Amino acid sequence: MMPEGRTPPVPSASPELDPESFRQAGRALIDWIADYFAHPEAVSVFPKANPGELADKLPACPPVHPSPQSEILADFERVVFPHLVHWSHPGFMAYFAAGGSAPGVLADALAAAVNNVGLLWKSSPALAELEGRTLEWLAEAAGLPEDWFGMIHDTASTATLHAMIAARERAAAAAADAGSYLDLNRLATYTSEQAHSSVEKAMAALGHGRRRCRKVPCDGRYAMRPDALDRAITADRNAGLTPIAVTATIGTTASTAVDPVPAIADIAASHGLWLHIDAAYAGAAAILPEMRHHFEGCELADSFVVNPHKWLFVQMDCSVLYTADPRWLRSAFSLVPEYLTSQEHSRAINYMECAIPLGRRFRALKLWYVLRSFGIEGISSVLREHIRLARLLAGWIQDSKEFELAAPVEFALVCLRYRPGGCDGVRADAASRALLEAVNATGQFFLSHAELRGRYAIRVSIGNIRTGEAHVRRLWELLNSLAGHTATDPLSGRP
Asked: What pLDDT digit, counting tens, does each position of 210-261 carry?
């Protein structure tokens, strides 16, 4: 009996899980993830799937009625799982690793639960201040200037776009100070011919066209040539263009080449250009004192990007952009509508004033979680092991008669070519391509390729937290065992 005067509760129409149902579903999900991590090699690293197969298995219309959580998880395993590429697999060596780690999974779940949105400081003091502090930790660990301002983006492409916008903003201010204006139709930026496509995309996104991103020639180690950079800038100035920025790379995508930052910084300064450094992959290695020589001159940069979701074992997505002078980001993006105005405080950080997005996810939580879980010491030990394994593989290649290194091994990426019988040119290209396809077809490993000096090279990127020496040894055995079966003449098809 209800007490007199009380209204009976109205049953909720919400399909939301009640706490006990959520608890049961969560336990099942965590058990599934734990089993997945416990046996990472139980599945093929790359699926045997064709485009459209998964889509054809899914209903054409959206679900009308709620489904039990157990059924949804079962359907994930039955329908979705067979089409996954397993980035957490120890044999995933195709691209720079983004497999994350177990603590990163926990942090992502926690961030999704509290679901804080970063707008102003007051929209989530925790989000704003945890981001500020963890980026200070990362900068200190990597030996970067302690007064740099940092913020988290989704990817390095977004971070680089923001850096180019800041460069344009500073150039416009300089022109105004000189009593002139910046002609947006005559801008130019510069980067290495080995640089990531995001640098070109930034110019395209800004409406200046990819052709206005000048690709500077490289030396024999695939690093940007400062003399060629200086000539390109001078030629553009003489042609009436306005150079605004140079992007140097530490750890290029194809071969992890390192551009000579001190020389490039001198040239950028002499021409009054913004210097952006793309260390999206290799920036993690700056926490190792023995690798700091690769980062000489970085303190001279105007901006610097590193992706913790690559080699710092943080879940995708988490890209950190540092800048020596955040006022140019604020100059470009500080547009505060009335409903978001607030009383300012000197320690309050409003990240929305420094970026295109208004709202932002709580990405700092997973960076904080991983740094706390492993410590700089733990992360360093894994990075050192990956570098050792890359050098071990490189040594085996150098001792081989039919394989050769295609690029210097600077970090934990190895580029190799297969040259059966000492062949070269198109024959070696075809042999290397066939060997890569044969390795990937086994499902034990997933490798990718690059073009270096116009020649095909196999890329072996060691960066997964679960990859050990046994996996690298197995890959070398597989490369050698499959090599004889793929050594055909590409022109005749005969062995």
From this structure: 788 999 999 999 999 999 999 999 999 999 999 999 999 999 999 999 999 9
Provide the edge-to-edge strand list for the sheet that holds 448-452: 403-405, 413-418, 455-461, 448-452
Q: Take residue 120 and report the two structure tokens written for it.
A: 């102003």
Q: Which two structure tokens, joined as six digits, stand for 119? A: 């707008």
**Under 8 Å between Cβ of 187 and 214:** no
pLDDT digits (tens, 9 = 90+) for 370-405: 999 999 999 999 999 999 999 999 999 999 999 999
Q: How far apart, in Å, are the Cα atoms of 429 and each of 393, 424, 434?
A: 20, 8, 9
193 class by beta-carbon count within 10 Å (0-12 exposed, 13-18 middle, 19+ buried) = middle
The domains located in the chain, with CATH, are: 20-46+85-101+375-495 (3.90.1150.170), 116-361 (3.40.640.10)
Distance of alpha carbon 126 from alpha carbon 116, whole angstroms:
9
Estimate the share of the chain in helix, then strand, then coil, as percent rounded to the nearest 5: 50, 15, 35
**N- to C-terminal Cα separation, the chain:** 89
Cβ neighbours for 400, distance < 8 A, ≥ 6 positions apart: 480
Neighbours of 126 (CB within 10 A): 13
Q: Which two tokens stand for residue 486?
A: 């793929």
The 10s digit of each residue's pLDDT in 317-358 is 999 999 999 999 988 877 655 555 555 666 767 777 888 888
Strands 303-306 and 413-418: unpaired
Amino acid code (one letter) for 109: A
